[in-house]
Design goal:
It is a single chain. Helix content is 16%, strand content 56%. The chain has a 40-stranded mixed β-sheet that branches. It contains eleven helices and 40 strands. A hairpin with a 5-residue loop joins strand 38 and strand 39. By secondary structure, the protein is of the alpha+beta class. It is rod-shaped, with a radius of gyration of 55 Å.
Amino acid sequence: MKKLFLSLISLIAFLFFLSISINYLFNENIGAITLNNIKGQLTVDCSADNIRLNILKSFPYISIELKKFKLDEKSGFDNDTLLFAEKILIEFNLLQFMRKDFRLKRIIIKDGKLNIKYLNKSGNYNVFNSTGESNINLDDLKFYNTVIEYTDSNTNIVTQAEQLSINLLQSEKNKKLLAKGRVIMDSLIVTKRNYVNQKKIRLNLSLILMKDKIKINPSVLEIEDLYKNIEGEISNRNNISLSIKGENQKINSIIYCTPDYLQKIYTSFEADGIINYTAKIKGIINKNTHPSFDMNFKIENGSLKTKTNFEFKDGVVKGSINNGEIQNLSSTEINISEFSAKAKNSTLNGAFSIYNLNDPLLKTSSFISTWNLGEVNKYFNKSPFKNLSGKLFVTTDYSGKIAFNPKFKTHFLNASHTSIMDFSNVTFLYQDSTLPFIIRDAKAKIINSISYISLLDFTIGDSDFSFKGEIKDLPQFIIDNSQNILEINGDLNSTYIKFDELIAKRNAEKNKKLTSIFPNWCKFNLNLDIENFSQKDIHLSSLQGKINYKNLFFSFDSIQANIFNGLLKFSGKFYEYNTDHISLLSNMQVENINIRNLFSVFSNFGQSFIQDHHLKGLVSGNLVLHTNWEPDFKFNPSSLEVSANYIIEKGELIEFAPLNKLSSYVHVEDLKNVKFSRLENTLEIKNELITIPKMNINSSALTVSLSGTHKFNNEIDYQIQLLLSELLSNEFRKKNTGIEHSIEKNKDGLSKVYLKMTGNTNDPKIYFDKIYVKEQLKEKLNKEKETIKEIIKEDILNNRSETKTPNQEDLIIEWEDEILK
């Protein structure tokens, strides 16, 4: 160690004394010798402010330090500076220097700027003297913190060399240029487009410089953290043929390094992952032409996140990119032969192609995806589906434009696409409804705007449905329901429908006006087969027929159902009018319907005169019905209009107040529970007035003929005829003497009693109808008058006509009508 230490001290001392000796021998003329030697090799002027010799800095070379060195460019340009440096170190071989041989070994440029121009097939750097032997050999040129700018007719490159080493090796045929180091590329502008902007670059290049051609031997170029292996050639300065290979590169780094004018490709999404690729670039670069570009790649661990926060992960993508015949973005094709990715609980697999990156067009073939609907629904801000969950399995063929921005909706709806879909365990709430929608199973095929449903089993609240048919505009409705109405056609089956639950009233909070209880987002034409249907207390079974719906308007055709132990057939219209009321207009045919249940369900039609507990029997007939309900299905009696022809069989009037009063009046207890086998009549209801034409109620106890009117406020005006047996008639006379003028015998020997019932049903007034008797007598007398007149004309006057004188007048007979007064 002692010897080693002494050797180092001796070497340092030697170098120190050598440096002093050299400076003593050459210091007076070293600056002038060096500068004149450099100028002798140049055709332009150069200068330096301070020149100093140093042997220690570059040992075993000797260096000359030139401060504020300035080298002019070749004449014929802008008379600008080719090179300026705060400091330049020029190194010589020590032994050669001792022999005054000043051929340069190495040049080190610090804190400077190199301004290279190539215009009109000439460079401003051609400043070396072509005659004589040159002492300048740029086989080792180093730059530290130096700006290097290159300009030609199409290109402008501005680079800051942090540390760059250039070796230029010359031979008789060509020159070999080696470049290695770190630079910051401020800009790389070709035909007015900036391809690189403020990027850190590491390079290790090996170039063969030939006339009108630069050959690139296998080299490494690192932009930021992107490593590229490059090989190829550049001829005529703008005709390139390059092979580029990248291994384990980060996609977000590629996006970061993409030229600014191409960054619009990524504005709607963020992407990352690891990519391996090989690419070829070939062709001429100028303001009108781009080279061809072809790349094969594979991405692993890929991710994609849209601006709406829709995100794919664990992506594997294998494919190619080609910029097409016209070699620009509009002709670029991206062909993906293998694609797989996950979006939380959603997966995608398949192959696709993208054309025209200026306005991307997507084409897929058998693209298979599994979607978590809850995740998907988050990306549609205006979706009417709340708390959506479930699975969707889709196989899709798609051809149309694509975008990861608000234009996606329009592009999707205008595209041509076919999807085979399978839904499973889907649940959601629609808009502000509290009823849960549950799709147990659904299978569909969507071709553009039409969805062909082969199976759709779902429930809404307590109601279940099974549908087969087609739905138009379903994709439009899901994506942008405010602009579209679903059109549904097909067969609807159900085990049970609870209609009053489906149309439950909803109130709008803002304007506090009642909103529509019927859906305004669909229209449909359906063939119905419903086992059970209920609307509050109305229960139907085995309901079949056709129903159409559009614009809050239902129409029914050939509907048939079992109701109240009988059969109902009807056609009609059921519609909502300005959310003020709900109207029903229908033609109905009923067969053997339990009349008590009918009155009970319809709340006795808003009157209390005759109610469900007063009635028994089976009703059949035809009726035209028009009525309204309040939006919550509260019956509006004033709107009821009925015109009916009906038959009641096996009927009973039980404890019917008017008959009870009549029974007490005529002392017949059997009238408190009157049974009749058949009652047939017509009925009209309008303006809260029931009009009853004359009808006969035949029973074993009596025969009642009744007609009149009955208002909904229970004001009545009835004409009643009682036909009693002789026994009852005699009993009636004994207990009610002086009423013979109100009793009339018919041809069978039975008696009729004419009664009047008026007032209110709570306390009706019953009395004998003398006016009716008089009218009947007057009618009979008038008929007898006419009969007598006819007899006189035919039998008497005709016989005397032959003896009648010309001045003889007709016979006038006057009748006394006092009996009718």
